[in-house]
Amino acid sequence: MLTPNLSYANLKESYLFYHIAQKTKAYLADHPGTHLYRMGIGDVSLPLVPAVIKALHEGVDDQSVKGRFHGYMPECGAPSLRETIAKHYEKRDVFLSPEEVFVSSGASDELGDLLDLFDRSNKALIMEPAYPAYVDANTMAGREIIHLPSGPDNHFLPLPKPGIDADLIYLCSPNNPTGAAYNREQLTQWVNWANDRGAVILFDAAYEAFIEEDLPHSIFEIPGAETCAIEICSLSKTAGFTGTRLGYTVIPKALERCGMNLNAMWVRNRTTKTNGVSYILQHGGAAVFTDEGQKQIHDNIRIYKQNAKVLMAALDKAGIRYWGGKNAPYIWMQCPNGMGSWEFFDKLLNEIQVVGTPGEGFGACGEGFFRFSTFGDPADTVEAADRLLKLLSNSAL
Ligand code: PLP
Q1: Which end of the chain is less congested by CB atoms within 10 angstroms, N or C?
Q2: β-strand pairing of 330-334 with 369-373
């Protein structure tokens, strides 16, 4: 009889968003017609920008014309888009060859697929709280996971310390869910650690476009990263592609382990397991990197940042401790009066009709914390912040 991948039996049921949906559904059934202020999910609310829409339309039109029509695309990405993205990195003094850039259908796909490059015996180090896909993808692959706890003591930015025995490390900066972002000195510590050990860093840069302080946007801004890191990027939050799907991954040619070149291995992987990303999407995605596209996406990001300011002002007034909001579209607050994160969730839903995400859903270290997404509707965010401030200022809370 066939044996399925038995590692799937080790997956923990992901209750987080299911539970949130169940609770909000039950609340609405009891309170029909009530408007909920949804600050939970990390999905964008603004549509694609005009420059991208125009390019997507052009892409569709091209597909209707003999001579401009495209069939199968190159598996690793359209050469012109790979070159455009490599040029985009030059703004940060990172010099890549286009062959080091791989166009993808988004970061989630890559975070799972890239694990093909690594032996199952490698141990994965995952900082906690974490984006749940890191843990689940490694569990599916049957890999041992070592949790790296983070909390207020290390500002949710854990650093390497002696005795950590791992081969693959996930760093997400700016971080989902905590909003914390590493500085150069801290990332240098991780790069040195990985090079010393022969480990590989999977650097998730899905939120780099939200950085406003002088912090690295790319791990490749750190000297030595080219021999120990892979960077996974996404246009989802940067440019509203959550439902359109496009991303890119950087694997330097200098990255080798056991005499094998990881860039060449990934070329082999993509050419076997994919037939490339749709021409239409790559044509649309290229518009993100034009001057016009950059201006328009940053106008949208500014709207989300204004949401963050509104929420942070309410938390400041209420004297609540929080992280993030500045360099990331998430605000990670400490629940008041030692409340548990689900207890706080229920309170917000029942008393002020605000929906957020309980920190416990991102791992045990998230208990006692709560995540607000700043991707919501601006008017809703203003009202939610007002309600939150009133609730948190109530001494009988
Ligand atoms: N990485 C992080 C840290 C995320 O928060 C998300 C989505 O929320 C992703 C990756 C997935 O991005 P994509 O939409 O490109 O699959």
Answers
A1: N
A2: antiparallel
